């Protein structure tokens, strides 16, 4: 593919990701007219429109949606190539891209990564927070911290342990509304949870609870785990929380004998990265860091 074509496809990928020409132009460091010309040129080459234009904005056509997964792979490969080129394999310089869930990235990883940066100031860190499982095989990220066993091939993975999770409430909520004595009584309380069907809802459904687990169960709904924790700490209701985080924030345990489960913690990276010194160093650092976090949970 010619360099010019790649530039046009990069612009298409940016628009699909950002949802508008102005946001895509900003992300690419281009002017909006320049990016618009890229889309028009690509449409001429492909002989079909990529977006339907209306006063409400751009709507991708079927052609654009068909191209989207290929563009994501191309973009991931290009980003991985830039990270690889940022430092030699045996060097402690360059970039490392890590992916993990929202709550792990916001609440658990910062001190772990902070310690790594103090020891390795010439290594740049990129953090992707998503509850979606990123594809390490196509190098969406270099290293992943996952709450489920990795199933993709060609990965180096290590199980660190398991994070204990239970129901909690803030002291203010407990003082005002009391604490339910059974799962049945929980139905009379404000419960914090998810807005859409998700792996977490599916996990709850497997616990044989006395009521069906649907979004209607929750009085406060958000798909952002960090927002759930913030709502829990603010006294908006009873919610699920790591035992370690609950102890840190002084939350009150609810239904300890009736509700408890564990999330496995896995550190994974593509096997081709084992020869990169900085990747191995980060992999081992994450293992040690999460071992410390899990040990803190056993004391909680």
From TrEMBL:
Domain HTH lysR-type residue range list: 1-61
SUPFAM superfamilies assigned to the protein according to its UniProt record, in alphabetical order: Periplasmic binding protein-like II (SSF53850), Winged helix' DNA-binding domain (SSF46785)
Lineage: Bacteria, Pseudomonadati, Pseudomonadota, Alphaproteobacteria, Caulobacterales
Molecular function via GO: DNA binding
Record's keyword terms, sorted: DNA-binding, Transcription, Transcription regulation
DNA-binding as UniProt keyword: yes
Matching Gene3D superfamilies: 3.40.190.290, Winged helix-like DNA-binding domain superfamily/Winged helix DNA-binding domain
UniProt-listed InterPro entries: LysR-type_TF_proteobact-type, LysR_HTH_N, LysR_subst-bd, WH-like_DNA-bd_sf, WH_DNA-bd_sf
Pfam families, A to Z: HTH_1 (PF00126), LysR_substrate (PF03466)
Protein name: DNA-binding transcriptional LysR family regulator
Family the UniProt entry places it in: Belongs to the LysR transcriptional regulatory family.
Family matches, as PROSITE patterns: HTH_LYSR
């Amino acid at each position: 593919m010619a360099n010019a074509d790649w530039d046009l496809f990069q612009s298409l990928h940016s628009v699909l990701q950002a949802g508008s020409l102005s946001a895509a132009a900003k992300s690419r460091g281009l002017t909006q007219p320049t990016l618009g010309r890229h889309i028009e040129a690509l449409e001429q080459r492909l002989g079909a429109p990529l977006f339907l234009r209306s006063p409400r904005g751009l709507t991708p056509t079927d052609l654009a949606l068909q191209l989207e997964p290929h563009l994501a792979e191309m973009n991931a490969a290009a980003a991985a190539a830039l990270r690889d080129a940022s430092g030699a394999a045996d060097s402690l310089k360059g970039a490392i891209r890590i992916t993990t869930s929202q709550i792990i990235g916001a609440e658990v990883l910062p001190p772990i990564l902070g310690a790594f940066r103090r020891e390795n100031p010439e290594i740049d860190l990129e953090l992707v927070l998503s509850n979606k499982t990123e594809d390490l095989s196509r190098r969406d990220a270099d290293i992943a911290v996952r709450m489920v066993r990795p199933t993709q091939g060609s990965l180096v993975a290590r199980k660190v342990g398991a994070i204990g999770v239970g129901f909690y409430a803030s002291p203010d909520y407990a003082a005002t509304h009391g604490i339910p004595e059974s799962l049945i009584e929980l139905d009379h309380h404000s419960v914090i949870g998810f807005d859409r069907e998700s792996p977490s809802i599916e996990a709850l459904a497997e616990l044989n609870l006395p009521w069906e687990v649907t979004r209607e169960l929750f009085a406060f709904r958000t798909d952002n785990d960090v927002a759930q924790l913030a709502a829990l700490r603010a006294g908006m209701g009873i919610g699920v929380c790591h035992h370690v985080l609950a102890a840190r924030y002084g939350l009150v345990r609810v239904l300890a004998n009736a509700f408890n489960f564990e999330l496995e913690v896995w550190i994974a990276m593509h096997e081709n990265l084992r020869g990169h010194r900085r990747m191995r160093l980060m992999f081992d650092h994450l293992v040690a860091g999460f071992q410390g976090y899990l040990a803190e949970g056993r004391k909680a």
